[in-house]
Amino acid sequence: MFRKFTLIELLVVVAIIGILASLLLPSLSRAREAAHRAVCASNEKQIGVAMTMYNNASDDFYPLHSNWGNAFGALGTVNNYGGTTPVSQRPLNAFLDETGKIAQCPSEKGDSLQPGIDDCFEDVGTSYLIQFSNNAFSVLMVTTNNPNTLPKVTKWDEPVKKIILGDWSWHGNRPMSNPDTRWHDQKNRRFNMLFADGHVEFFTFPLAIEGGLGAPDPSRGFY
């Protein structure tokens, strides 16, 4: 015959479960974020493959497109950054899936610079920001809407250091003091970044990039 638990015994069991949960939840949270970061890196890697395929089919030229957010990805809901550009008019999508969902980071928190963009993928069609139209934050332009200034793949002296794109918040005008900037790392300016040689790196930027950091310089490890 089974003996009933006393109230004290039940409270002890509940306390033990609470202690175990408090020990396990941080580990589970870290594991989940590591998985999200891996998915994000895989997305960028596939976008890099699409970029290479596009270059091979276009005499080593990068794609022309009209705004920061419409080189690839899905149809967004706002016009900012070219978000309402149809999927069929985003040039890299010819080498990606038809939905454009490869451009969605599972850890994204929107654009901390634009309060109206709470989810970059839903609003703009992509969670990833390419270096478009000009040199900024020590990174040379990659794509543009001007055929006369469109770069070629062969332009880069050190492709392993040449940034192509990264998590939307990587630009220095999105400060780490804003929690919406911190997608994958709560302490450092660290983002998944795609480089011209095709590799994706969980790259740490110097905090000085928030002040502009000056002209592009490969000796910093990126340009």
Provide a concise account of the structure shown:
With about 220 residues, the protein is an alpha+beta fold. About 25% of the residues lie in helices and about 10% in strands. It is built from 2 helices and 4 strands, in the order H-H-E-E-E-E.
Total DSSP helices: 2
Radius of gyration: 22 Å
Look at the structure and give the mean pLDDT.
Answer: 92
N to C succession of SSEs:
HHEEEE
| Helix share bin | 25-40%
Task: Label the structural class.
Answer: alpha+beta
Distance between the termini: 75 Å
Number of domains: 1
What is the spatial order of strands in the main beta sheet?
Answer: 1-2-3-4
Poorly predicted spans:
none
Beta-strand percent range: 5-15%
Shape: elongated
Biggest sheet overview = 4 strands, antiparallel
Q: What is the β-strand count? A: 4
Structure report:
The chain has 223 residues and is α+β, with helices and mostly antiparallel strands. The chain has one domain. Helix content is 25%, strand content 9%. Strands 1-2-3-4 form a four-stranded antiparallel sheet, with helices on one face. The radius of gyration is 22 Å and the shape is elongated. The N and C termini lie far apart (75 Å). The model has no long low-confidence stretch (mean pLDDT 92).
